[in-house]
Amino acid sequence: MKDGDLTMAETPERKVIAATAAETSPDNPWPLQLLSQKLKAHIEKAPPAWVEAQVIELNKRANVSYLTLRDVDAEVSLSVTIWGSVLSRLEAPLERGSRVVAQLKPDFWLKTGRLSMQGQDIRPVGLGDLLARIEQLRQALAAEGLFDPRRKKQLPLLPHRIGLITGRNSDAMKDVLQNAALRWPAVEFEVREVPVQGVNAVTAVIGALAELDADPAVDVIVIARGGGSLEDLLPFSHESLIRAVAAAQTPVVSAIGHEADRPLLDEVADLRASTPTDAAKRIVPDVSEELRRISQARAQLNRRIEDLLDREFERLSFLRSRPVMATPHLMLTSKYDDVASLGGRARTAVRTQVGRHLDQLAHLRAQVRALSPQKTLDRGYAVVQLEDRSIVRDPEQVNSGAALRIRVAAGDFTATGN
Question: Are residues 148 and 237 in the same domain?
Fold first, then answer.
């Protein structure tokens, strides 16, 4: 057997390579080169995407720059490689902390198996763009009614405990605590120190707000920061924070302290304070001012009472000076004379009436007596009656031998008819 034939006989039979990764196995693996090639082909199919982020690292070399971009709302970062020709198109040099929009395309380095992002274009986000976005969000939230004054809650007249959300050991926290304590020494605070700028600010403030809002002892919540640039204040215009403040049951005071560009937190808060110091003045009363008002009210009340007493004393003096009060028996005496006069007149009238009626009775008595049957009998007349007491008016009424009763002036007697 020839050497060549021996070689061919000893060479193992070539295996069929799996078409897909799912078909690979320990007995039929892919070559590493094939996996890398397939990954590169798959990644190269991905189209470029525009993203918004913040530049946190910038390392410039010859004709290439290496950037680290971080999400504006989350702890997510990504390394980007960008050519000098792309950066040269910018009007101003790119700096750390800049907010940008970049067009990124993933790239897979075949030899090392490293995935990188290639920056094909990059544009800074200017203040005008940020303001336009905030204004667009402002209009959208206003259309939902989140800024309606009718939904704003009334702050308590004298809060017992105040929730304060502010930066760690910040001047804003000191201003609120000191000025509130100066105005009302008995005030109590529940402080939550959180990041007030950067990617963690929104989440931290929302968490502190939810915690304080759930505490029944907290009467009002203050979100305070001592001003800053527009980029620094962007968390206080974030939609998630605005909706969280709108949903809070406890009154919320915004004390960001930025007059030039008001964050949306000022619009949704139940009260807007121009500065943290102004917030302290508006959430608690001034004890000295309240004591002064109490003194004024007390003095005014005393004056009113004194004026009332003086008026009533004058009225009493006037009433006492009247004759009826000076000599009250005169009123009884005058009435007594009136009663006596009326009594005399009544008696005279009664006597007159009685005399008149007595005369009438005497006259009537005389008339009755003159017309009485007895007067007729006294003149010699007699009344003849039959046994049945009927009066005889005709002689034919009397039968012979009939018993008669004859009544004369002095009496009566019987007789017999002929």
Answer: yes
Q: Who has greater pLDDT, 231 or 59? A: 59
Task: Let me know if residue 149 belongs to a domain.
Answer: yes
Which of residues 220, 251, 285 is at a domain's end?
285
The whole-number pLDDT of residue 9 equals: 40
Residue 57 has pLDDT above 70, yes or no: yes
| Residue where a domain stops, chosen among 285, 306, 327 | 285
Contact predicate 193/173, CB 8 Å: yes
Determine the pLDDT at residue 353.
92
Same domain, 113 and 145: no
Residues 99 and 221 in one domain: no
Whether 177 and 253 map to the same domain: the answer is yes
392 contacts 398 by C-beta, under 8 angstroms: yes
Bridge-based pairing of strands 77-83 and 114-124 is parallel
**What percentage of the chain has pLDDT greater than the value 70?**
94
Could you give the CA distance from residue 204 to residue 250 in angstroms, rounded to a whole number? 18
* Residue 7 confidence (pLDDT): 40
pTM: 0.56
CA 134 to chain centre: 29
Say whether 402 sits in a helix, a strand or coil.
Answer: coil
Domain assignment present for residue 225? The answer is yes
Q: What is the mean pLDDT of the chain?
A: 85
The 3-state DSSP composition of the chain as helix, strand, coil percent (nearest 5) reads: 45, 20, 35
Q: Note the pLDDT of residue 165.
A: 95
Identify the residue with better confidence: 329 or 356: 356
Residues 105 and 140 in one domain: no
Are 135 and 281 contained in the same domain? yes
For the chain, the domain total comes to 3
- Which residues, at least 6 apart from 37, have a Cβ–Cβ distance to it below 8 Å? 110
